[in-house]
Amino acid sequence: MIYIAWHLLYAHPLPEGHRFPMLKYELIPEQLLHEGTIQQSNLFSPVPAKEEEILLTHDKHYWKQLKDLTLSEKDQRRIGFPLNLQLIERELRIAQGTIDGVKFALTNGIAFNVAGGTHHAGSNWGEGFCLLNDQAIAANYLLNNKLSNRILIIDLDVHQGNGTAEIFKNESRVFTFSMHGDKNFPFRKEISDLDVALGDGMEDFEYLSLLTKNLEKAFEKAQPDFVFYLSGVDVLTTDKLGKLSLSKAACKKRDQIVIEACKAKNLPVQVSMGGGYSTDIKDIVDAHCNTYRLAFDLFT
Q1: What ranges do the domains of the chain cover?
Q2: CB contact at 8 A, 61 and 47
Q3: Which residue ranges does the record assign to the Histone deacetylase domain (predicted)?
Q4: How far is CA 10 from CA 14, 25, 59, 154, in A?
Q5: Could you tell me which residue, 21 or 10, shows the higher pLDDT?
Q6: Which 3 state secondary structure label does DSSP give 272?
Q7: Does domain 3-299 have CATH number 3.40.800.20?
């Protein structure tokens, strides 16, 4: 059984101007159910994560400012929208969805979070629509509970996983691999264990060649027993913010390369969806759904 974290709250507590890209959180499971890729039994609704899990990753003062809604206006602008309690609950449910996902992945090989991929959140800051770093929180859950000894985080969102890199910069048990637009947000990059900077306009063949070469390098250096995969679809040529020129077929091949590699190495993998900002919501949803379709073909 492949389990997928999903909650209606994922999509709703955002200001009006930010709701369009969040529609995908409703449309992805609807499409997968409609086409028969998944059943209702594949979906689960996470509860909010506990404070003790958050504080394994995030600074205590930063977390207090979030939950008390006392973060400065400047810091809220850095995040991209004003705080409210429903938004904090959303982030806590996303984080728990990824924690639950790692438990399911350990048993079943792979698990998904329809949301997540909040990789711009650092230990003491939020940025780029990210408040709490779900995969970092789940990685620390694994380490703290001695469920994993070596973790690889594969971040193929078009934007660097700067928060993830900062959180684990002094943690040798977590290897961070980010393949991202060189001249894209965030404009001040952190240092991952393996960064691959991509030029504007990069197309399918060059991208997939770089991925194949560097993914194997990441596996060799990390020697992981657990993998996190951030599968943002903002690499598409149709994406308003991505600056790359990948076709939908290449985006699907990217996912295939990563997921097949994890399965071949018998490594459990948790997948969070990351970004996607194409003008047509159908392009976003279909590209994300391809990730699930591949996983269900390989693991069921």
Answers
A1: 3-299
A2: no
A3: 20-289
A4: 9, 7, 24, 23
A5: 10
A6: strand
A7: yes
